Amino acid sequence: SGKRIFDGSDWLDNVSIVYGEGKIIDVLPTSSINENELVPGNSFPVVAPALIDIQIYGAGGSLFSQETNANTLQKMYDRCVEGGTHLFLPTIATNEPEILSLAIDAIREYWQHDGKGVVGLHVEGPWLNKIKRGAHLEKFVHSPDEKEIRELLAYGREVIKIITLAPEVCEPALIKLIQEEGVVVSAGHSNMTFEQAISAFEKGIDLTTHLFNAMSPIHHRNPGFPTAVMLTEGVRSSIVPDGHHVDFNMIRLAKKLMGDRLFIITDAVTETSAGPYQHKLSGAKYVTGDVLSGSDLTLLKGVQNCTHECDIPAGEAINMASLYPAKVLGISEQYGRIKKGYNSDLICLDEDLSLEKNIFS
Known about the structure:
Blueprint: E1 2-6, E2 11-20, E3 23-29, E4 44-49, E5 51-56, E6 58-59, E7 62-63, H1 70-82, E8 85-93, H2 97-112, E9 121-124, H3 146-155, E10 160-165, H4 172-180, E11 184-187, H5 194-202, E12 207-208, H6 224-231, E13 236-239, H7 248-258, E14 262-264, E15 280-282, E16 285-288, E17 291-295, H8 299-310, H9 314-320, H10 323-329, E18 346-349, E19 355-359
Parallel strand pairs: 1-4, 5-8, 8-9, 9-10, 10-11, 12-13, 13-14
Antiparallel strand pairs: 1-2, 2-3, 4-18, 6-7, 15-16, 16-17, 18-19
């Protein structure tokens, strides 16, 4: 039970959650439950649905693209759990095709051994705009052809959930091919103009990757890609609320315009000194050389930053890291709410939204 339970839409007082076998059986007034059936000493200031991170690259000194195995996925899950996260998409940045195959293999192996938390793979690149590649390696960045897309989709069937690409470097028919396979296309690392972005959205892209980062800038006579995102109903975007990727005031602005279309990712990497991507911790962020390359966030820290730094109400900030990512993944009928029949993975927080306990099945 919790003093206050956030169920994904409302704050409930003096209620208890009855759960078993990974599902919520009921949410009832605490007064209606026999005292003997209540777990003693198990009342927390805040109880909320567990969090979901759709973009994370590594943890514990193991970058998934460098140590592409089930052991790295376990490390990533352990790191996620520290930040109240129970589901995540391990992510591979622009790389050679062999690494993507290894990542798909590793996820399948992890699943076969009942590994927890991994929903599937997020492929970020290599079909990006070189001008907006950020820390992605230029030698791997290119436009795709149909053969390459078909081979990747066939090999990664049921594993690949999201592909981030720059629409201006991909033929619209090829983007449609990816979507028809049931993979979500997210626009990112793109230098699209406002008009090009609107056109891409009209053709069926409804997700974008880390708003403001690796996008054409906003100018009052050239509104750019981010402005199209903020003004287009139905287009969602992730954002990295660490205070380094995006100024907190810009998050406040985007939130006012986008409401429930804006959600949180960590974009978290880890310290690594081997392979093509070598990330070094610099303060509370990671850099490759002098280029910003990833965050040191946990998802719960992102929630706290949204409430404390961006004036976003606590319930809404929780939704940005739980219900809204669940909607992106098409699993919001099972995750992101405390409701009868939903998954029963819960986070128990103090008044400051710091983690007191995970209740994960």
